[in-house]
Amino acid sequence: MPSPCKKAVIFDFRRLEGVFSVAANFLFICMVISISGIFRPDATASSVVPRYEIDATFDPGKHRITATQKITYTNAGDTEIKELSFHIYPHRVYTKEEKNFLYRYAGYFRINPFPEGWQTGDLQIESVFSPGEKKLPYSISGTDQTIASVSLETPLKPGASTQVIIRFTVDIPHAYGRFGWHKGIITLTRWYPILSVFDKNGWHNYPFYAYHQPFFSDASQYYVKLTLPQKLTVVSTGLVRQKDINSDGTQTLFIETEVPVRDFAMGISKDFQVYSAHENGILINSYYLKGDEQRARDAARNAAGLMKFYSERFGEYPYKSFNIVPGYLGFGGDQSSGLVFIDTRAYKLPVFLDRYFDFLVSHETGHQWFYNMVGSDEYKEMFLDEGVNSYWILRYLEHKYGENAKVLVLPEYLKKLVPNFSFKDTSYARYLYMAKNGIDRPVIGALSSFKEPSSIFALTYGKGSAILEMLEKLVGRETFDRIMSRYAAEYKFKNVSLDEFMSFWNKETGRDITWFFDQWLKTDKKIDFSVKSVKKRELVLENKGNLRMPVDTTIRYRDGSEQNVSWDGNDPVKSLPVEQGKIIKSVEIDPGNAVLLDLDRTNNSWPRKIHSRLVPLYFFAYEIPLVMPLDAYTVTAGPSVGGSSLGIASSVVKPFDGMAKVSSVYDFGGKSVDSRFGYELKHVGNTQTAAGFEIFDYESSKENNDLRGGKVYVRRELWPANYGLFDMNDHVTAYFIRDQKVTNESWDTTERITNYHYKKNDESIIGITGSLGRCGPYPDPDTGWRFMPTQEVAGHFLGGKEAFWRASAELNNYFPVIPKYQHKLATRIKAGWGESSGKKLFQLGGYDGLRGYDSKTIEGAHMVLSEIEYRFPVLTDMNVSFLKNWFTLAEIQAVGFFDIGRAWYSSFSGSSFKKDAGLGLRAHLDTFGFLERVIVRLDVAQAINEPKSDPHIWFGLSHVF
User: Fold this and answer.
1) Partners of residue 362 on adjacent β-strands
2) 258-262, 474-478, 661-665, 744-748: lowest mean pLDDT where?
3) Between 909 and 715, where is the model more confident?
4) Phi-psi region for residue 390, left (φ > 0), alpha (ψ -120 to 50) or beta?
5) Between residues 643 and 517, which one has the greater pLDDT?
6) Pairing mode of beta strands 633-641, 804-818
7) CB contact at 8 A, 450 and 460
8) 3-state secondary structure of 159
9) How far is CA 792 from CA 121, 418, 445, 759, 895, in A?
10) Which residues, 6+ apart, have CB-to-CB distance to 957 below 8 Å?
């Protein structure tokens, strides 16, 4: 290991060692500044933008950067400036609540963000001084301590320039994300003090919003001198102008930006390999880890295609090179200036997700125009980069793959089996879900005002891109493209505000369309056109929402004629007379889908549209609105296959609103016919509430095994999103069951009611259950808790012959034990009480209780149960792929567990505690790259009270608790 690099300081002549070496470096930097900055073709821009000169040394052993930074700043405003404000993002201070939520939200991305326990790094300012070596006072402020304010010697007058030198150190955390290191890759964005933006509103000193990108900065010039070990490859913003090899085993890189950029980022690793290609004179370097070369080639090709598409519309990419860098982000990708980071897991996506990989690379590459060149306030007005870029990425993907481009690339034999969906569908579906469930909000607003971070994707990205597509259809594509081209040129290397954006559109279109932006961006108003009634002499159209938009309507008559009517949409109801002697055959509002965010498109037609499809195998995917037309009721039918059953199933779905389902299967194991009919209504009362019922008939050839009954339920979600396929969202459910354990067939709302004894015969039960959790990350929590209470009452109604009540409460806790090695402890405590005391109300044996005993054993009217598991990895970073990356075995985790419980009737002393102990294995499988993580469970348990009994073996999905 080379000795730690000595600290180097630019222009600090009293402390520098080696006068001649320093002089040479000084002259070289001055030459670079004079040639590359002042006299380059874009002289106007580069002469007034901030200039950063950074001399940094990276110590990989300590994961520390020691640096000196000189900032040259020109006051471009018309008022004096008394201080300079900097964002020092790595210095972020987190509250306990924020720490807990970071773990919880990490489940959205299927990773543990802190492999060795909580770490966030730090940026410590050692001193601040002027070029004349006079110390300058500074202060650290902000609710999260990420603002450094430096007082100037004298107020900076308009048009004048000043220089400030900051000495600082940066400690890089072992963490996933855009600032951290993991498995030999160091990812560094916004790692140095970066100037806030100063304008007529003063300094924009926003806090660091940890769950998205709160960045707002001026386009600037960078000159960086970086010293680090020779074995490390550095991929950065800008160009390496010179590379010196030092006698101590280090290298010194001199890096400069050609034209202004928004930030200076680096990816560092000794494991990087590179594939290079050229696009229109631009060198595209696609870096990768061993084994990922094909994906690196794909990434270079994807970026080249996007750059060509954007360059033709918004002007040429202004830099000589572009870098694509793999990193352990935990999320799909991250933009920076001159480079993008792509999550390492994305390189393992299966072939059928090639287009999704294209989307990831292209989306981040597109930010070279909308973020890097055209800057905006990402903390308050993220629509201006994420919404705009998302719209153009959809345009690019449809340009490349065809109209309504599908996400999945399926082989012929799967096209009829697996339902597909488009990029546009996924973009708008998330908004529709939020709007219908009453959790919509304005697109524009501070990031911290979003209740749940993933809603940013639904609103800023999804709704934002749809708003621009509606604007395109409002003004026409040719006009839209012309204005966007001029917009990109007008604000190149500048910052644009929403007000300026709207004014620009008003000016370029020659009309005031502020009403459009104000409604769609600044309010949560909705629009819902509907054919209200069709009568012999009158057609009535209606807008059930409170947002106003013009819309076209096509009326077709039985005589073959057709009429197109334009409605300004200002009134909630529009009445149209029907011509004498004509009979209406059909009506369609908005046939061209110009109003994309129409809340319910099934009511846009008269008569209502019905889409029918026969499928070779019916399964839950055919019930998802994403894979069906949004303007029709969809009827799906086909054979259904279970573990030991075969039959047929059919559903009728109104997208996002409700579903009726009927099925009948033959169970070969039970020698029975199981028939079911049910219906679920979504977003009751415009809230996250679902209500439904199911009726079933179980006819068995086995004696006394027939069963008939049903259930009715109302479920209210208490959090806007669940973070995984097997994640249990915060919720409360009230239900009535007749001869049926309370479960909901819908895969994302399954209740978890365990250790209850159900006779499934002559029982009528009313109950309420729920879950409230603050644990994470999903699916293998490190920290936090989950609480699940249940209360049931059975009585003599609707034929019920049993009368009792019972209640239980379960508390799960998760504790890190040795965070560095991912050792953790999980505990479960559960207690239940019921009356009358002579009834079997609880049972503790089985895979979800006392694992050393058979299911439906250890029964009673009351119970207590306690379980503890010690979980630790035995094999990590396995990356063993199956079926061409459809599934990847990421980790094998071992579990040692101990269970103890007791069930009794009237007398506690009439029973004894039962105990078991055992070992388990958990196989952590990444499915479809990184889209879901599944835990496959194997437990072997031995009853301690019955040492001569055989061990019990249990298989399942996810942890027991």
Assistant:
1) none
2) 744-748
3) 715
4) alpha
5) 517
6) unpaired
7) no
8) coil
9) 49, 40, 44, 14, 33
10) 726, 934, 935, 936, 937
Backbone angles phi, psi at 662, to 5 degrees: -130, 140
Provide the phi-psi class of 618: left if phi over 0, else alpha when psi is between -120 and 50, else beta.
beta
C-alpha closest to that of 324 among 395, 273, 248, 385: 273
For 348, phi then psi, to 5°, come to -100, 10
The model's pTM: 0.92
CA distances from residue 169 to 134, 393, 667 in whole angstroms, order as listed: 20, 38, 67
Q: Is the pLDDT of residue 11 over 70?
A: no
Query: What DSSP letter does each residue of 762-799 carry, written as one string?
Result: S-EEEEEEEEEE--BSTTS-SBEEEEEEEEEEE-SSTT
The pair of three-digit structure tokens given for residue 257, joined into one six-digit string: 């930006």
Stretch 449-472: mean pLDDT, rounded?
96
Q: How far apart are CA 588 and CA 875, in angstroms?
A: 59
DSSP 374-425: EEE-TTT-GGGTHHHHHHHHHHHHHHHH-TT-BS----HHHHTTS---BHHH
Predicted confidence (pLDDT) per residue in 271-330, tens digit? 999 999 998 999 999 999 999 999 999 999 999 999 999 999 999 999 999 999 999 999
Measured distance CA(236)–CA(288) in Å, rounded: 15
Q: Rounded to whole angstroms, how far apart are CA atoms 190 and 195?
A: 10
ω before 816 within 30° of 0 (cis)?
no
pLDDT at 914 over 80: yes
Contact 227, 248 (CB under 8 A): no
Return the number of other C-beta atoms located less than 10 Å from residue 722's C-beta: 18
**pLDDT for 33:** 33
- Tens of pLDDT, residue by residue over 54-90, are 999 999 999 999 999 999 999 999 999 999 999 999 9
Ordered domains of the chain (ranges, CATH): 272-372 (1.10.390.10), 392-522 (1.10.390.10), 529-594 (2.60.40), 670-957 (2.40.160.50)
Question: Which residue from 782, 783, 784, 803 is spatially nearest to 792, judged by alpha carbons?
Answer: 803
Angle, helices 464-475/386-401, rounded to nearest 10 degrees? 70
